[in-house]
Amino acid sequence: MKHFFNRRENIVTEALDGLLMTSSNGRLARLDSFPDIKVILRADWDKSKVAIISGGGAGHEPSHAGFVGKGMLTAAVSGEIFASPSVDAVLTAIRAVTGPKGALLIVKNYTGDRLNFGLAAEKARAEGFDVEMVIVADDIAIPGITQPRGVAGTLFVHKIAGYHAERDDDLKTVATHAAAAAGEIVSLGMSLSTCSVPGQAHEDRLGADEGELGLGIHGEPGVERIILQPVADIVSTMVTRLSPALREGASHALLINNLGAVPPLEMTVIAKTVLSSPLGRRVRLIIGPAPMMTALNMNGFSLSLIRLDAARDAALMAAVEPHAWMPAVERHEIQTIAAPRTAAGLNGAAVAGENTHNRRLITALCEHLISQENELNRLDGRVGDGDTGSTVATGARSVLARLDTLPLDRPAATLAALGDILGTSMGGSSGVLLSIFFTAAAKAMADKADISAALLAGLDRMTFYGGAAVGDRTMVDALSPALQALASGDIAAAARAAVAGAESTKTMTKARAGRASYVGERDLAGVADPGAVAVAGAFGVVASLA
């Protein structure tokens, strides 16, 4: 896989410097032992309170350095990618930030982290520092395991410990709250891909239709492979595994964590699905969805839950300085506000009417466009953003869904209704352009009952607002010659003209409108414009029914 980096051996130090350069001025700093010892710490720290230290291998960004700041971590110690920091690095961090009130180390339950942080803690105690350590083992993926992994639920402990330290509680109190929290966190991860380490050869162990349930944050194999399925089914499986580990009758905080590469669009679908599940009824506070404990570019997510009480509620809701922490929100219902409606819409002015021929024609056109969804997407994937087929099919499905409400016996009203439907449901520039086309055609048809002239009037308004003309490599290249031919009354000639117009776009290596205008000549050569192809297909349907 491809990555943005300079030299593999410098990627972690350059990333940490990038964090420091883009953080609030003067809030974060690094020790001068950098880059051999990579410690990010609060620049304003005066050692008057309990220090909270965590860390681990890089590759989990924004963890851990991204959570350094007032209200959370005092310092974060980083190793190389997926490698625990050394004992010397951890001990240096302890020395740098620990004052009379001591320090708490928060450690994920991996052998390297336990050993290196543990030995550093022992050495620090021998030097006279008051140090406690809490180990987080929140992963429930492997039932009955004696040493569960520490994963994204660790962030709950960062937040709770940081809250109590900021309140100036003593070390014993801070450690007690942190340990109690660590004992009541459950997490489970799911991914559709393995992660890829920059500079290393990547081999995805998963098939095209496989995902992994219960995998760690270092690319370790999951507990089981599952067949790719709708997110509702994936979430249902995860809920089934998580629910028995939760205390009955209690309310919980939920952390919805992006493991690195899930698009925000999909993460919010996941969030909606989780909160609509039986598990959602047990959630009162929500954190995320957001990338908070990632596994480089893993295309997956994890769910972490902790039982709430008054103290944890206050701790999780408290404002903090680190921008990587997503503020917790209370579970709430979706608020809806009535959309403004026109008088025509309220009074139902466009009364449905029947015309068998028009019904058959519109049905055939819509069914054809829906059948071409994948092919039009394929074409658009080569010259645009790959969604023309889906956009057109969405519009066609919307028309079919409202077919019984259309005034099919009144052509002008039918054209106006089509303009309304496509403008509302189709989306993108195509939806707006076709809405303009049908709306303007409806106005012309109402003035004079001449369908060919009306459609040409619609084309005139569409090209005026859209700016495209014949030769610009758009649907106009098929639509304009077809409508010109239709004006002579020859539907077959119109269909032939549409096909010829669509074919002509294959030789147009410079687009002057639409998303294809951002594509180079090499990629456009020999590929027909998908909008023009859709128009040609539509005229073919009209001709076949004539």
In short:
With 546 residues, this protein is of the alpha/beta class. It contains 19 helices and 13 strands.
**What is the structural class?**
alpha/beta
Average pLDDT level: 92
Look up the CATH topology of the largest domain.
Rossmann fold
Low-confidence stretches: 345-349
Q: Portion of residues in helices?
A: 40-55%
Distance between the termini: 53 Å
Question: Could you state the CATH homologous superfamily of the largest domain?
Answer: Dihydroxyacetone kinase, domain 1
Q: How many β-strand runs?
A: 13
Order of strands across the main sheet = 9-8-7-12-10-11-13
Kindly provide the name of the CATH class of the largest domain: Alpha Beta
Total domains, how many? 2
Report the sheet with the most strands, covering strand number, pairing sense and barrel closure: 7 strands, mixed
What's the Cα radius of gyration? 30 Å
| Morphology | elongated
CATH architecture of the largest domain: 3-Layer(aba) Sandwich
As a percent range, the share of strand residues is 5-15%
Enumerate how many helices there are, as a single number. Answer: 19
Domain DhaL: 356-544
Pfam families: Dak1, Dak2
Domain DhaK: 7-325
Protein name: DAK2 domain-containing protein
